[in-house]
Amino acid sequence: MTDQFSYTYPSPLEGYEGLEPLSDERNEDGKSLKNHQHGILSKAYEVFPDPLSKGRRGGFDIHIYHFQNNPDQVTFAKALWERIRREFPELRIYTFWDKPVGPHPVAMFEVNLFTPAQFGAFVPWLVINRGPLSALIHPNTAEGAGEEERNHTQRATWLGERIPLDLRLFKLMKEKEKREAAPVSMALYARSVDATLSGLAATSLPNYVLDYAPLVWLHSEDPYKPSGIAKHLEHVVAQVDYQPVAGAPSPITLDNLDQLNALGNESVYLSSQEGIDANPQPSWFNGASIGENGQSHDVSSIVVVHDRGGGEIDAFYFYFYSEHNMIRFQNGTPQAIWYSQHSAGQAFTYGATEKQGSRPIAYSANGTHAVYAISGGHDHTIPGVNLPVGFLVDHTNQGTLWDPVLGAYAYSYASDTKTIEPYDPTYPVNWLNFNGRWGDDALPSGPELFGQAKYVGGPTGPKFKNLDRELVCPSDPCIVLPFRVWSVESSEAQSTSA
């Protein structure tokens, strides 16, 4: 039950003070009271009263529940969902969920009401037609953690049996509001509440995949910030041998990208319209800005989860379409983490990594975006051996802290069928089947650095990153280091052994 003393209540007679007393005269039935008729209808017949939303949210949400493990209720709920869509097409009706989502402890679907007329028509209809199902009717008022919790509890109305909600989500929202003014390093400490409030937490993605998701330090001088996956496609042309692909879909989108497999397959490059060596470089090369809470303003990363069986799960965190971290979990506990660096990388025990709270830290190299476990210089002439100086040196430092899971899609990978499925049906999938390259082809006779091409061909997509690897590393031999070597720029002086 809601604590009635948690809230204050304005007088219902506010604005009606000082009027003449009402009459006690009865109507002909001898029971009901006669009211003075003044010929003016309440505005509530036309618009919802304040503070109910009159905008895109709608004044009321109605959540209609069914127990997902009860086949009779599932059948009835699906039929009711279809009936509402057919009889009330003007209402906003959402996905039919077959599992709990958000604060709702069992499966449900949602309907939004925008006018008193819609409320007056639909709610009486639902009272008669809801069958064995329960329905929550809650108002939408000003956004905010306190308001959302109150709307779902003290202001809520139930049809049928009340189903206790999981109010933890609103507690997390309150925590987020309290710390919004805190420094970024504190705002992202431990598990990000924003990730809990995002679509990822509303799916069946294991909680620990978010609890231990890496945080990424972008280099302070790196002009190339995380780029939105869909936004990137707005600026590319499909090419094979430096020529546009005939018959390529236009525009290229995440939903049709895989159609290029039939027009060039692995030879297709998603080349920038201006060219990789454009001078000056177009502004879109710089990606999207990062907010104070570490969130990219576009979806610029993905999480792919591979359940290997026996309680062992690999969670891949892909950044910028190419480089990634992978964490191997055993029964929800992180064991080791892989840092990809160009065509190689390094593996560490989870205990050896730098962390904020439970979340391991990755450092993204200036301009190349290879990910490292420490800040400083990283020569990658010898794969997997990161010397602080050399011929080809990546540089990392603590510039901008980025939280990739705040702008991410999440998928599951099945090794037996080699298929990738979304954790939310709204996440695009077809683009993950693209066999080509995310970027320009290597420039013929292009500039070189120490005998190696300055511009190399664009990287392949996530499905080519050995998602069903046996080891933490994508290849053998695989050395999982229980320590890390710190540079002078590191924020800590000594590693923690596993």
Give an account of the 3D structure.
14% of the residues lie in helices and 23% in strands. With 498 residues, the protein is of the alpha+beta class. Strands 22-21-10-11-12-13-14-25 form an eight-stranded mixed β-sheet, with no helix packed on it. Strands 2-3-1-4-5 form a five-stranded antiparallel β-sheet, covered by helices on one side. Helix 3 (145-152) runs antiparallel to helix 4. It starts with 59 loop residues before the first strand and ends in a 17-residue tail after the last strand. Pfam families: DOPA_dioxygen.
Rg from Cα: 28 Å
Tally of DSSP β-strands: 25
Query: What class do helices, strands and sheet pairing give?
Result: alpha+beta
Count up the helices.
8
Spans of at least 5 consecutive residues whose pLDDT stays below 50 are 183-193, 486-498
| Anisotropy-based shape | elongated
Binned strand content: 15-25%
Average residue pLDDT:
85
Strand order of the largest sheet: 22-21-10-11-12-13-14-25
- N- to C-terminal distance: 46 Å
Strand count, sense and barrel status of the largest sheet are: 8 strands, mixed
- Percent helix, as a range, is 10-25%
